[in-house]
Design goal:
Layout lengths: L2 H16 L1 H14 L9 H18 L2 H9 L1 H25 L4 H12 L6 H7 L4 H27 L7 H26 L5 H63 L4 H12 L3 H11 L7 H34 L1
Length: 330
């Protein structure tokens, strides 16, 4: 491949990473009007696509990222506890407050029980958070997900539907831990190769494209229900997703304050707790709750909204810094 082509791909990847939410929303809108575009994204195909997303995450991780888990045990412990306590509890509360129907309840509970999202690391970087802590939290929650997500779903959603905890454990293991492990191995083995940094620079764009495909597949799946039940279904579901995400940010920041964290770490734990791996939730909903097709709707909305809200929150944190600097200089 020529240098010009590689530069084009690199710039495209950078643009996709910087405009992830807009791209995903555009794909969702197009798919709503032309659902046949993404009818191929379901079942095994959807699982493979998520595996590619997790592989891209692994390709960017180094051994130093995992050493953080040992170097900062208190920070990681607080972060992991906040991640797997706050979001499932908030989801469970909202399900009952909004009196969600079983399918939508399953979707929002699944989002709440999943680990932190990969793009949270980017948001922490943008708002001058503690990026090393962010990466450590993402690694920890991802490693814990095969056990914690099925366990928490059993506790929160067991009264709605029978949870195949063992099957969910194996599925999460296959689509998260193994691809991340392969990516880390490739990074460790080929990190000194002259072409490897270029390959890494393409990963953000590939990850966003894959996530957009998953969202497109979900919209294609629930298209008929959205048409039949109109705008109200979407708005009601979005309201729950908005509350879940926003409360995650607020309570995550509060947890950091109670733990005595610095400003940078409070911002990071806020973002890490609020932003979930909704792509994983989408795949799990499709694989384990196929009889409840609307379960994927909260997951798909979360995929897009978490990227948007994370960008907004990072901007608000930066605006606060600018205002503080302005007051200090007066």
């Amino acid at each position: 491949m020529t240098t010009g082509n590689m530069n084009f791909l690199t710039q495209t990847s950078r643009w996709l990473a910087g405009n992830a939410s807009l791209f995903i929303i555009a794909i969702a809108i197009v798919t709503f009007f032309v659902p046949d575009l993404f009818t191929w994204v379901h079942g095994t195909t959807q699982t493979v696509i998520l595996g590619i997303i997790m592989l891209t995450m692994g390709l960017t991780l180094t051994t130093d990222d995992f050493r953080i888990l040992a170097r900062r045990p208190f920070d990681i412990l607080i972060g992991a506890c906040a991640q797997f306590f706050i979001m499932p509890c908030v989801a469970y509360l909202l399900v009952h407050v909004f009196r969600l129907e079983p399918a939508l309840a399953l979707g929002i509970l699944l989002v709440g029980c999943c680990p932190g999202g990969v793009s949270s690391n980017i948001m922490s970087y943008l708002c001058h958070g503690d990026v090393a802590f962010s990466v450590g939290m993402t690694c920890a929650s991802t490693l814990l997900a095969p056990v914690m997500t099925p366990l928490l779903m059993e506790l929160t959603a067991g009264e709605i539907i029978e949870i195949n905890a063992v099957g969910m454990f194996l599925n999460i293991l296959i689509v998260t831990i193994i691809p991340v492990g392969i990516g880390c191995f490739l990074n460790y083995t080929y990190s000194k190769s002259t072409h490897f940094p270029t390959i890494q620079s393409l990963m953000p764009g590939l990850s966003v494209t894959c996530l957009a495909c998953i969202v497109g597949g979900v919209i294609a799946t629930v298209h008929d229900d959205l048409i039949a039940r109109g705008l109200w279904l979407f708005l009601w579901t979005f309201a729950v997703v908005f509350c879940h995400n926003t409360l995650g940010y607020i309570l995550g920041y509060t947890a950091g304050r109670l733990a005595g964290f610095s400003k940078a770490k409070k911002r990071t734990i806020s973002i890490e707790v609020g932003m979930q791996n909704a792509g994983l939730a989408t795949v799990l909903a499709g694989n384990f709750f196929a009889a409840q097709p609307l379960a994927v709707l909260p997951c798909a909305i979360s995929c897009a909204w978490h990227s948007i809200s994370g960008t907004i929150l990072a901007g608000l944190f930066l605006r606060r810094d600018t205002k503080s600097q302005g007051q200090a200089s007066v």
